């Protein structure tokens, strides 16, 4: 039990984060679940085995104090931290005349600043133990600019952070993986999309990266639904 690896997941209350938590539990990982919605997290933690296998930690990823507390709680509870999946994020309508400027700011803060804080909080622990795996949720939109999409710009930033972090930790066994989904059927969309990936499709890609041998670092996983052209 004490030797089972531990994965921290932000944005774990629904969608890709929750699906990844379930898959990780199947693979024998213990999980630290974080999001702003504490009630959903507690329910998921109970589903995944309760106190010995999962811990729910309310965390606003834009808060440095919350991010530090998430890592500290994980290590105190489980005695280790093997991976962090920086998955929290949300989108906006395309068009630079769409959405409110307040929505824009919240999105940039969460998708970019929040991701950077997840890296900062995790990297200190990974450096201390000289091991760890950082996974970041980017997007197809982080590889090509979508028309009128500030969201796309935030995901380009996440992709850049992944590359920058990989260069920074090149002197260590720390791994870095960018997860780049295409269209996924998650609460991200107001109207359920047709022909989209399921959250579990992305979760399985995450587990593929996490379960490679120590000498293998999967740098990027781009996963689209079949026939998605963009």
Describe the fold and architecture.
The protein is α/β, with parallel strands linked by helices. The protein has one domain: NAD(P)-binding Rossmann-like Domain (Rossmann fold, 3-Layer(aba) Sandwich). It is 42% helix and 16% strand. It has six helices and seven strands; from the N terminus they run βαβαβαβαβαβαβ. Strands 3-2-1-4-5-6-7 form a seven-stranded parallel beta sheet, sandwiched between helices. Helix 4 runs parallel beside helix 5.
User: What is the H-and-E element order?
Assistant: EHEHEHEHEHEHE
Radius of gyration: 17 Å
Largest sheet: 7 strands, parallel
Number of helices: 6
What is the domain total for the residues? 1
- First-residue to last-residue Cα separation: 43 Å
Helical percent range? 40-55%
How is the CATH topology named?
Rossmann fold
Q: Find the count of extended strands (DSSP E, 2+ residues).
A: 7
Oligomer: single chain
Quote the beta fraction.
15-25%
CATH homologous superfamily (4th level) name: NAD(P)-binding Rossmann-like Domain
Structural class: alpha/beta
CATH first level: Alpha Beta
């Amino acid at each position: 039990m004490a030797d089972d690896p531990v994965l921290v997941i932000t944005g774990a209350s629904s969608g890709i984060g929750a699906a990844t938590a379930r898959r990780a539990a199947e693979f024998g990982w213990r999980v630290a679940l974080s999001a702003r919605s504490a009630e959903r997290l507690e329910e998921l933690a109970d589903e995944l085995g309760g106190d010995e296998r999962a811990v729910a930690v309310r965390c606003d990823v834009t808060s440095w104090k919350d991010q530090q507390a998430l890592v500290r709680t994980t290590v105190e509870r489980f005695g280790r931290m093997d991976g962090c999946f920086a998955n929290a994020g949300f989108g906006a309508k395309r068009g630079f005349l769409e959405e409110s400027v307040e929505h824009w700011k919240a999105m940039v803060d969460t998708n970019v600043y929040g991701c950077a804080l997840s890296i900062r909080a995790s990297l200190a622990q990974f450096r201390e133990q000289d091991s760890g795996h950082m996974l970041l949720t980017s997007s197809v939109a982080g590889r090509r600019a979508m028309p009128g999409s500030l969201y796309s710009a935030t995901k380009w930033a996440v992709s850049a952070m992944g590359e920058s972090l990989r260069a920074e930790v090149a002197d260590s066994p720390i791994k870095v993986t960018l997860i780049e989904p295409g269209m996924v059927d998650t609460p991200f969309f107001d109207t359920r999309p047709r022909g989209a990936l399921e959250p579990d499709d992305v979760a399985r890609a995450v587990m593929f990266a996490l379960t490679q041998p120590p000498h293998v670092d999967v740098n990027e996983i781009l996963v689209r639904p079949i026939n998605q052209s963009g």
